[in-house]
Amino acid sequence: MSDMPNCPSCGSEYTYDDGVNYVCPECAHEWSKDAAPEEAESGKVFKDAHGNVLQDGDTVTVIKDLKVKGSSSVVKVGTKVKNIRLVEGDHDIDCKIDGIGPMKLKSEFVKKA
């Protein structure tokens, strides 16, 4: 088993060969034999409205007035949002906005500050 790569997800050394893929029995992660280890764990790249790459902990600025669903509040243009967290889904930014509270935003409506 020494010629098998460790799992890129959990680092387990107990991976096995399953045809065209490697499989980790501990976390059930599967990856292609052709994929480089960096590509296997890279995942989705989140970009702002101007194409800048976003990362967890970044500060962003809202570029459009956004209505808050279920409320009469509005997030105004220029509102700074600190310490964002990136998540999978339709609204890919999880954050807390001062004066409004926890929210989910789409990355297409923000720019990196």
UniProtKB/TrEMBL annotation:
<protein>
    <submittedName>
        <fullName>Protein PhnA</fullName>
    </submittedName>
</protein>
<dbReference type="Pfam" id="PF03831">
    <property type="entry name" value="YjdM"/>
</dbReference>
<dbReference type="InterPro" id="IPR013987">
    <property type="entry name" value="YjdM_N"/>
</dbReference>
<dbReference type="InterPro" id="IPR013988">
    <property type="entry name" value="YjdM_C"/>
</dbReference>
<comment type="similarity">
    <text>Belongs to the YjdM family.</text>
</comment>
<dbReference type="InterPro" id="IPR004624">
    <property type="entry name" value="YjdM"/>
</dbReference>
<feature type="domain" description="Protein YjdM C-terminal">
    <location>
        <begin position="47"/>
        <end position="113"/>
    </location>
</feature>
<feature type="domain" description="Protein YjdM N-terminal">
    <location>
        <begin position="4"/>
        <end position="32"/>
    </location>
</feature>
<dbReference type="Pfam" id="PF08274">
    <property type="entry name" value="Zn_Ribbon_YjdM"/>
</dbReference>
